[in-house]
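Question (not urgent): is this output format expected?
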Amino acid sequence: MYLLYLDESGEPNGWTSQRHFVLGGVAIHEGQVHRLTEEVDDVQARFFPGVQVTIPFHATEIRNGRGVFREWLPARRMQLLESMFQCISGAAFPNLIAFATAINVTAAKTPDQVLHDTFQDVCQRFNTFLLRQFRQGFPTKGLLIIDRAHQDHYLRLIAQFRKWGTDYGYLDNIVDIPYFAGRHDTRMMQLGDFCAYAVFDYYENGNRANFDKISPRFDRRAPEHPADGLKHITREQCSCEACSWRRE
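Got this back:
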């Protein structure tokens, strides 16, 4: 089974201060969760030697020097960000696969529509990956794990998808209802947060530094193919990583 840990970056109703909202995360094969958890625990051990309690890593808090990172110099915070992104970039396919959907303000109407369209799109991409794995002789299913802060929205949406399907059909390979967890509950949710953060920073600020680290991890139908696991919903003419090849 693949566990897709999803998180939001930006606000679905924050269009006075942003131009993009992102729903993204990482799908991890169940057999790799323990190993990747140990990798992130090792990162904590390097930066917080001797601290036994789990410190949840949130990309925005680290970047902006908030919480336990408020006394850190920028260079040290950047080293920690780099170490966390290395946990994602160093995981080979198919142990970890990234998925993300970004929506531009030009395609945003209401907060409910923004959440519906991005969640539907990510689910469809995850379902397509699972179907491809099945056709290649690796029958497996998927489970969604979402930040519990957004529980009500996504329970309602998944109920709609199961009853009426999505614009792309039914999500037959995603089992059960989503499960909800906080970033302090699982290291994998923290990796999902870093994925969503990097995609948001790329679209909102044009910053490719962290995006380029995770870009090779996005789902692809073939190694040489552009990223199927990344989508940009916009009404503007766009030449971004997700849009350019789909216009060809």
